[in-house]
């Protein structure tokens, strides 16, 4: 059975013991925002929020996520429009090819929920598990700072 909490992803209630959550999200639930990058937890392209924790979905077995509240990039925007972190990524050109973007968005949103006004150093440390080969990190950091300011106003 799959339940869909508001603005979250469905909770797969059963998965084969050897299937990783990224595969369940993409292949079973059809939420393809989380990308397959390295498949060993080094790039952050498949980052999701699971019960309030940031995890690389390629490292979590589907059965480990059973019953968990899982938010992917698809759950960030609301019916009213883009979340401030998404808007800031667009306005600051903090994306190019898009492979890393979902992971950066999920991680950045989690940071801003925990720390509404993080320093540049804290942002860089928080996002250290997400790799980008296209933009570099300055535009991404600027986008997170811009989103924090927008969310504070």
Task: Show the helix and strand layout.
Layout: E1 2-3, E2 11-12, H1 21-28, E3 47-50, E4 53-56, E5 70-71, H2 84-91, H3 101-114, H4 120-126, H5 138-152
For the biggest sheet, the summary is: 3 strands, antiparallel
Task: Please give the oligomerization state of what you see.
Answer: single chain
Q: What global shape is seen?
A: globular
Query: Major sheet: order of its strands?
Result: 4-3-5
- SS content category: alpha+beta
Could you spell the SSE succession in H and E letters? EEHEEEHHHH
Helicity level: 25-40%
Q: How far apart are the termini?
A: 41 Å
Q: Number of helix segments?
A: 5
Q: What keyword list fits this structure?
A:
3-stranded antiparallel sheet; 5 helices; 9% strand; 153 residues; alpha+beta; single chain; two-stranded antiparallel ribbon
Describe the structure.
There is one protein chain. The chain has 153 residues and is α+β, with helices and mostly antiparallel strands. It has 5 helices and 5 strands. The protein has helices spanning 21-28, 84-91, 101-114, 120-126, 138-152; strands at 2-3, 11-12, 47-50, 53-56, 70-71. The longest helix is centred in the C-terminal third of the chain and has 15 residues, at 138-152. Residues 1-7 have low confidence and may be disordered.
Summarize the model shown.
The chain is 34% helix and 9% strand. It has helices spanning 21-28, 84-91, 101-114, 120-126, 138-152; strands spanning 2-3, 11-12, 47-50, 53-56, 70-71. The strands form 2 sheets. It has a 3-stranded antiparallel beta sheet with strand order 4-3-5, with helices on one face. The protein has a two-stranded antiparallel ribbon with strand order 1-2.
